Amino acid sequence: xxxxxxxxxxxxxxxxxxxxxxxxxxxxxxxxxxxxxxxxxxxxxxxxxxxxxxxxxxxxxxxxxxxxxxxxxxxxxxxxxxxxxxxxxxxxxxxxxxxxxxxxxxxxxxxxxxxxxxxxxxxxxxxxxxxxxxxxxxxxxxxxxxxxxxxxxxxxxxxxxxxxxxxxxxxxxxxxxxxxxxxxxxxxxxxxxxxxxxxxxxxxxxxxxxxxxxxxxxxxxxxxxxxxxxxxxxxxxxxxxxxxxxxxxxxxxxxxxxxxxxxxxxxxxxxxxxxxxxxxxxxxxxxxxxxxxxxxxxxxxxxxxxxxxxxxxxxxxxxxxxxxxxxxxxxxxxxxxxxxxxxxxxxxxxxxxxxxxxxxxxxxxxxxxxxxxxxxxxxxxxxxxxxxxxxxxxxxxxxxxxxxxxxxxxxxxxxxxxxxxxxxxxxxxxxxxxxxxxxxxxxxxxxxxxxxxxxxxxxxxxxxxxxxxxxxxxxxxxxxxxxxxxxxxxxxxxxxxxxxxxxxxxxxxxxxxxxxxxxxxxxxxxxxxxxxxxx
Length: 535
Prior knowledge:
535 residues, alpha+beta, globular, 7-stranded mixed beta sheet
């Protein structure tokens, strides 16, 4: 399906039109977000739903179509569910948990995996949903909040610090204006004009290989699973990937090699050879969008620079295998949102942002490590790496122990922060299973809902037993969530958290565990709360 292109050649999914500039040549705002992709829009919702005024500037005046993110992980869906937008995404998207890896012309997979090994959770392991649908849902949710102002066709062309504010020079089709912000959150993508204007570094690797994305519209009844091939007959010596999307759109991904003619590779007749090779010689399909991409694994040295904070692709880049790019950016937004909320309310010092810098970099480094290993395995560039690649695949066909070594893209999961300064260590003599401080809480069924849905927008004290003494003197905005025989379905939550009678967990607003006790007291909880708020 051929879509209308803007003058830069960007396909248009949803025209919106330019937002008129403000009446004054200079104005002020508490928080400005630059970039209206999934990360910027999620960031706006994080702050807007907490009552803060947000101005979001987006250079384009439309929602772009084309080959962008499609795979959204459970952690991302949990975040969006807390923000009230996951349900329509899951309903629209293609839900999947199973991935299969094939080799050569063998129709049987050499390896398969389950992205939701812990069952009985509200959200699935993954959904596939085109990014423009995701942005539609997020835009509508932002537009429903009067304290979020979305400005389309507003391009930031300058940035400087002056008098304790960050001043942005903004260009529109109707003129230029200045915007002074207390905080600027740069979610402006891989080429980040904000990062470039500030002269900040962006280091890492660019991998010498090219991949073809072919989004095609076909009528097929294949299962909703991730299928990956090593050395398939339709792309010998290389790799390929198949994903189902909504509306009869399928994503086909083919490794092409390094020295290619990029323009020639996306000509319809050349793409058709790959499509028919994968799906069958006589398959009828319609072109949705074709593009070529190259792997990059890069990040900034720091994500926090004074009152300018970077999130998503502006701060870090990874290869698309593993679906770690956009999912990592959504994790940034969830991590930053509650911390900036406390700072804006004067309930935490600005130094709390150092924990965002640390934790977001831990996430980025974990994603870069996994993406680099995936890329090195899929595209070996030395005799040694090729030998390892072939040996692992040979072993995996016959021996189960080798199958976890097959790396077709380790898929995105929540990253833990066991060394975060916000964690309170366990009591020295306490024996624990369950979930340690610095790890994300695991969902489970309650009698009237789900655990993660029952957590508060602030901190939550989750426990088993009588909270009366533990809660004496604690701030009123801490949500109390008792779990017991009357509401813990089949005792799953008690087992997952290793909750004995009297035990308790302090859970952060982004659903990470901050502390846990076998013998909680109001002082222990208050001290852990202060630590988790950077005080």
